[in-house]
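hey so i finally got around to running both of the ones u sent me last week. sorry it took forever, my laptop kept dying halfway thru and i had to restart like 3 times lol. anyway pasting them below in the order u listed, first the sequence line then the structure token line for each. didnt double check formatting much so if smth looks off just lmk and ill redo it

first one:
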Amino acid sequence: MAETERYSFIFVAEANGGYTVSVVGLPKIRAFGSTEKEARERAVEALERHLAEQEKQGETA
């Protein structure tokens, strides 16, 4: 069975509206969305792109 990685996301409600999301342990990954749902979706997309690029380069998270 393949090992499953787990990542923690930090959501910050911005004063001017919307949410910024970062991934614990991966400071280069940040996303913004007008709603919490949109921010979550964008953060997951950014994480998936990051992991795909690492896999392509033979690295691990």
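and the second one:
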Amino acid sequence: MKDNSVEQNKHERSEQKKIIIFSCYGGGGHMSAAKAIENYLSNYQVKIIDAIGGLFAQIDPIYYLTFKYYTGQDFYNYLLRHNRKRITNLFFYFGALMCSLRKKSMFRILEQSIIEEKTDLIISVIPLVNNVLAEISRKHSIPYFLVPTDLDIQSFIKEVQFAHQKNSMLCLGYDYPEIKKCIDEKFIPASHIKVTGFPIRNAFFEKKDCAQIKKDLSIDFSKPVVMLVMGATGSTATLSYLQELIKITVPFHLIICVGRSTSLYKPIEKTTFPDHITYSIFNGNRDISDAMAISDLCITKPGSVTFSEVLYMNIPVIIDNTTPALIWECMNLDMVKNYGLGTIITSYQQIKKIVTTYLIDKELRIMTKNNIVAIAKKDFGKEFKKLVDGVFE
């Protein structure tokens, strides 16, 4: 029988520990991962800090060029919303250069924040700043966990050194050989690397009542369900896909995920759907994991967080690559091809044919689903919480 007083003391000690998660609002994935981690560590004091658009605004040239109206993060999101991926890639290189040139300022700003918050554990889910955070962690002997939110972790681990540093850990989403090729063990030894699973919310691990969800959404049980989710900033791509999907002659139900893009409602409602295609609009009123649970096929962008949510739900995936992928998303495309997880679309003209093939070929969907099931996927919440609890024991 457990000693209740011991358990209570342990809980009280954990509540006193302060954990800072450095994240940002660039895209939707970093903040989604940060909030998932915050939820898993609910017995600790956890604070999420927007480093890129918040702390670094004071050294952001775009912030001052626009008279403190827009940050570089705002411009990045504008590019994503309008599917300007080539410019986004160039802008990323500009951001990386600025981080390199302003490393001392970044160190000062981050160190001040960490000290002011009386931080007991540093967690980062963002790229480009982790060499600085590793130095601060080493200087102040504060444990540091780096949780990349992309499969391609190069921008996360650039110049990061964990060798001879206690309680520092690189937490990988998958045991995928291409990921580990990015790591130089002279700087990040194997003892500082742990496959924890990808940082997605607990809702994706819950058992779902698929029949009830379909009933709630008035979905015909005889129809296959296709999910269209272009992420928090993918408004332009959503409408482009929609115009091609309504040309399909096979009956199906379409779930359109609009995320933060409330501007999508009017153009969707003005769209004329043929009688054999029914649809639902998914926003923040219902968890997106419910939509994934009932989907037979998912069309999405190659962003790592949504991509991983789809993989964890074992759904055959069609990845949008109608414009060149962001540099850090190319590995996701390779994973789809190498493991047979679905199909990559490079032109809107391919949509009707490819989606129709998946709708009418049930064996193809089953084979693809089996390939996804075979991918080892750890429960991030359980694995990561064990690591954190181990630091404070």
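quick thing i noticed on the 2nd:
The chain has two domains: 4-198+378-392, 206-373.
anyway thats it, ttyl
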